[in-house]
Amino acid sequence: MISYEFPLNERIRTMLRLEDLFARFDHFADKQESHDHHAALMVMFEIMEVASRADLKSDLIQELERQKHTLEALRNNPQIAEDALDQILNDIEHASAKLLEMVGRIGQYLRDNEWLMSIKQRTSIPGGACEFDLPSYYYWQRKPADARQADLRDWIAPLTPLQDGFAIVLHLLRDSGKAMHYTARNGVFQQMSGGKIVQLLKVSLEESYACVPELSANKYAINVRFTHPVTGQDKPRQFEGDVEFNLTYCNL
Asked: pTM here?
């Protein structure tokens, strides 16, 4: 099965973007080659830009607090494992405390680092990070891999409370999902929403289908259209056959 997640509001969209960026940073930072560490640094600059949204931290703190109250109401419920409940509540407490310790504009310490900002500025120019453009950066890239990794971890560390916070929110959001099986006739599916609010929709289908979903949704209707994957100079074409798929509704 292959799954596609579609966020239906800007807050969840931002969290999913950050989740992907942090995963890419970890992937490249754990490598040994200087080119991988260059890629990790570029991803870190992307994280800084995405995380600079003014209300991101307050949104996370409020959502964690809301989930804490919701989960605490489940105590003494025989269908709930107390150990698992205590663990997630402890995780929420820890994540909230770390977020509250973050002061000022998110990522400002990176913006105050003139050396890093000089790299960010030069890399906005195609091919702008050559050794003759940034000799000090070239020198850094020649340092031992463990020294570069230590620097990367030091630079990203003040942003990790965000990662911990949205990881909990997205975990709870995905766990709330209720999957339903549907068939898209001739590649098209529509369902009336009846005013139901959903924050995340997941479309899952067998990888043997040579198609990808396009989704649009509001409080009145959900529309899923399957198209042939666009490669090369091909134009998008609607998938002509029926598609069996699962649609998962997630809402906090």
From this structure: 0.90
